Amino acid sequence: MLVWSRAGRWSVWAAGLLLMSLFYLLPLAVIGLASLAGQWNAALPSHLTLRHYADAVQGDSGTELRVSLLTGLIASLLALAAGSWAALALRRMAPLPRRGLEVLFFLPSAVPSVSVGLGLLVAFSRPPLLLNGTTAIVILAHFILVSAFAFGNVSAGLARLPPEYEDVASSLGARPAYRLRRVTLPLVAPYLAAAFSLSFALSMGELGATVMVYPPGWVTLPVGIFALSDRGEVFAGAALTILLVAATLVVLLGLSRLPLRAQAR
């Protein structure tokens, strides 16, 4: 750290903890209280109840959670494959065209997600490629929005990869496909896991593009939460929000437990 005194370091940590509490922990705590609130007319709920969670389990929320998980997993896997392929292809290019293509790849993350949804809605609402009203357009929207982040993570891992490992493998007669499978990918495995985790987390919380393109039979949990809050059912929406956060954390914690280390085989 750039703060050398002990008092200065403690001050920086205290300020960081305060900011984290104000902008992250406090809103999450309020949502947690709202999910348990039977009535909230004062500073705190008048009584607590689990009715909102029971209603969420018995209603359509289970289906919406399953839809969110499937959409996130499929879109993240596709984004990981496309982002890894693009990062591997661009690393050998000249600097100038590589920067131009990288800008194009990051472009979807620089525009509002509603614009992405509207673009897909307009582009695929007529033959020959009619996707409007299908599950595929939702997965496509999520894939477009998270692919840039997968590409960025894999590119960062490849940039830190020492070229000596691949050079030694080539000098020993390893073919490109074998070198990629046994040397390059194992060395960047932590970055691949990070790319998938970030893509999945972003997909689980995506709303702007989804609400533009989703069909009635493929409703994600964020869309369900938005619909509840729009009808004034804030407490039920808060319960679904906690379920969404919990499901996302379970998947991310499971991914973090995978035995991935940067090592060539």
Helix content: over 70%
- Specify the number of helices: 12
Number of strands: 2
CATH class categorisation of the largest domain: Mainly Alpha
CATH fold-level assignment of the largest domain? MetI-like fold
H/E order of the elements? HEEHHHHHHHHHHH
Defining key terms:
265 residues, mainly alpha, 2 domains, two-stranded antiparallel ribbon, 12 helices, 2 strands
Could you describe the 3D structure shown?
- It is a single chain.
- With 265 residues, the chain is mainly α.
- The chain has 2 domains: 1-49, no CATH class; 59-256, Orthogonal Bundle (MetI-like fold), CATH 1.10.3720.10.
- It has helices spanning 6-36, 51-58, 61-90, 95-110, 113-123, 135-159, 163-171, 176-187, 189-204, 210-213, 221-230, 234-256; strands at 37-39, 47-48.
- It has a two-stranded antiparallel sheet.
- Strand 1 and strand 2 (47-48) form a beta hairpin.
- Helix 5 packs across helix 6, helix 9 runs antiparallel to helix 12 and helix 11 runs antiparallel to helix 12.
- The chain is globular.
- The model has no long low-confidence stretch (mean pLDDT 84).
